[in-house]
Amino acid sequence: MIAVDRADFSPRDPYEDAPQRIGYNATISAPHMHAAALDYLQNHLVAGANALDVGSGSGYLTVCMAKMVGRTGVVVGIEHMPELVELSRKNIKKNNSELIENGNVIMVEGDGRQGFADKAPYNAIHVGAAAKGVPKALLDQLAEGGRMMIPVENEDGNQVFMQIDKVNGKIEEKVVEHVIYVPLTSREKQWSHH
Ligand code: SAH
Prior knowledge:
Initiates the repair of damaged proteins by catalyzing methyl esterification of L-isoaspartyl and D-aspartyl residues produced by spontaneous isomerization and racemization of L-aspartyl and L-asparaginyl residues in aging peptides and proteins. GO terms for molecular function: protein-L-isoaspartate (D-aspartate) O-methyltransferase activity. By secondary structure, the chain is α/β, with parallel strands linked by helices. The chain has helices spanning about 30-40, 60-70, 80-95, 95-100, 135-140, 185-190, and strands at about 20-25, 25-30, 50-55, 75-80, 105-110, 120-125, 140-155, 160-165, 170-180. Bound molecules: S-adenosyl-L-homocysteine.
């Protein structure tokens, strides 16, 4: 995280430990949440790993993940708001343009609930928005031995951060903490009334 300047990605108060608005009802998550996500994924974001960042927003976490997987790794950031995909590319180009040029970071526009099958399977999947359940496509695209970190909304409306491992083809789930994320939803539900 120290290797990636949040000032390139946050329109204001980049070093405050709080989420900041980036437009389109999206936020750049708070540093402590980025740190927690990277921490849970650290043994899977190793040199040469293949990773997916769903709801890549500002692009900050995608770049952090790319720093961890190094020159031979690839991180796909998928985001459904086209304006945010554009913004993230702009943010990354400020000081990390080589990651895009060398293909270590690929920013795509699309519905992250479908994952991104073209580059699957993924050793690590991070989901930056809360879903009602775990999208099946993401489970399918998780590599053997891989780990997904995803905020999931319960029936009572509370959100938990879930750690999901694929071990010998079996899914192992664990709730690691309570969290608050923006919803993983459709583009229309997120921004239609504007
Ligand atoms: N991790 C990012 C953004 C977090 S906000 C950061 O820290 O900058 C969550 C993001 O998920 C928003 O940018 C929102 O537009 C996006 N999002 C919500 N639902 C989505 C979906 N179905 N597919 C892709 N992106 C989605």
